[in-house]
Design goal:
- It is built from 15 helices and no strands.
- The chain is mainly α.
- It has one domain.
């Protein structure tokens, strides 16, 4: 499939995913206000951390290796071996994480919400994380072997379950219902994944048995280590910043910042979800200088055009969009939204370069970059929030995105210069 066809198919799933999330967010905003939106975002970030720990870290690696093995004569054996290795890695990580959650459940839930009211959510984790592993590994496998429709089916099932269950639970139980809905979608996605991947393997359950191959575990483990560090620049930093806002100004202000972040995420999520299905597997099997340069140029240009178009649309209709997605209680965020949207353009370029760094370069460089920009974003946010309030947080996002953009340009120049030099020497 070419980039436009893959992007179109992925766009269908992305629209359903966005619609489900926006409906839940709308109901949550009406029934719980900014405070509920902030706490929901807080738990989403925590769940993201848990997902990356148990499986998300091996997904990119699994896509890469399955894509490569899919081009070889012995692809059936190798693909299954990598799937089994990824499942084994995920289940072991799940058991370790669950032990930590069990021992420190009170401290963790208090840090997330400021009280222990929602501790029952942590007790749902053992069941949920098991199905998260199945979901993530199945999606990565189907992406790697280019069976996009099956991958999309799994994702759509997960999103539709949130759409059908989430609003009802929120109306009945408030924020508690929203959190349960968020957890239940992981369960549904895992069930559908079991069905499809079992059929793919000829109804054989051999793929499900643990498989500990040193080479496979090392291959996937390196991506797991890199993903753990990337958490510092994404989910963990978000939790830390949100806690700082709560301590200084309260949950209401944190909810307004969450709204700004969600609005800027709209354009980024539409672009990254659609393009990643094409970009990551293609990048994994592209090695020649001109092919890599062509792929990066094509993906970057399309990503920039889409991000700018969506961001302009959001900015022009921001009053209407804020009320439509949230409620009138959130209208004040329109005064600070533009800097966040501008920063999104730099962020999308960083996304393209980040995957290139992950797939083609040294894991140590990737880790260093993620740590550096995560720390920079946190301290910029704290410093500028103290001076400018919520506006300062959008300044921080913009500055951090521009800094990453400068790094990206430098990184690509050095990478292609070295690649070109190696080709010259080889010839």
């Amino acid at each position: 499939m070419d980039i436009l066809k893959v992007s179109f198919i992925s766009a269908i799933e992305t629209i359903i995913k966005l619609f489900s999330g926006l409906v839940v967010l709308k109901v949550l905003a009406i029934y719980t206000g900014p405070e509920g939106v902030a706490k929901f975002g807080q738990f989403q970030n925590f769940l993201t951390i848990a997902i990356v720990i148990v499986s998300g870290g091996v997904v990119t690696g699994l896509v890469k290796y399955v894509s490569k093995e899919n081009t070889t004569a012995n692809k059936s054996f190798n693909c299954i071996e990598y799937v089994r290795g990824a499942l084994s890695f995920g289940f072991i990580s799940t058991l370790i994480l669950l032990m930590i959650l069990f021992i420190y459940s009170d401290s963790i839930i208090f840090y997330i919400f400021g009280n222990s009211e929602y501790i029952f959510i942590l007790y749902m984790m053992p069941i949920v994380l098991f199905f998260v592993v199945l979901y993530q590994v199945s999606v990565a496998y189907f992406n790697g072997v280019r069976k996009i429709r099956k991958m999309i089916t799994i994702k759509i099932a997960s999103s539709l379950s949130l759409l059908m269950v989430g609003p009802i639970l929120i109306m009945q139980f408030g924020l508690y219902g929203g959190l349960i809905g968020l957890m239940s979608m992981q369960f549904v996605g895992g069930m559908v994944a079991i069905k499809l991947i079992s059929a793919e393997m000829g109804s054989s359950w051999n793929w499900f048995r643990p498989k500990f191959d040193k080479k496979i575990q090392f291959d996937l483990g390196s991506y797991w280590v890199m993903s753990i560090f990337s958490l510092i620049s994404i989910a963990l930093v978000m939790i830390l910043i949100r806690n700082y806002i709560v301590n200084e100004e309260g949950w209401e202000v944190a909810g307004l910042w969450e709204a700004v972040w969600k609005l800027s995420e709209l354009s980024l999520l539409l672009v990254t979800t659609a393009l990643s299905v094409y970009y990551v597997p293609k990048l994994s099997i592209t090695n020649l200088y001109k092919d890599q340069l062509s792929l990066l140029s094509k993906v970057t240009m399309l990503a920039i055009i889409l991000t700018i178009s969506i961001s302009l649309f959001i900015y022009i209709l921001q009053d209407l969009i804020v009320v439509m997605i949230f409620s009138e209680d959130f209208l004040s965020v329109t005064e600070i939204l533009k800097y966040q949207l501008i920063g999104g353009v730099g962020k999308i370029i960083g996304w393209v370069v980040g995957f290139h760094l992950l797939v083609k370069s040294s894991p140590y460089i990737y880790i260093l970059v993620e740590l550096t920009f995560g720390v920079i974003f946190y301290f910029l946010s704290v410093f500028l929030f103290d001076y400018y309030g919520l506006l300062g947080l959008t300044y921080a996002f913009l500055i951090n995105s521009l800094l990453f953009l400068l790094f990206s340009v430098g990184y690509l120049k050095i990478y292609f210069y070295r690649l070109d030099k190696e080709l010259c020497i080889a010839s």
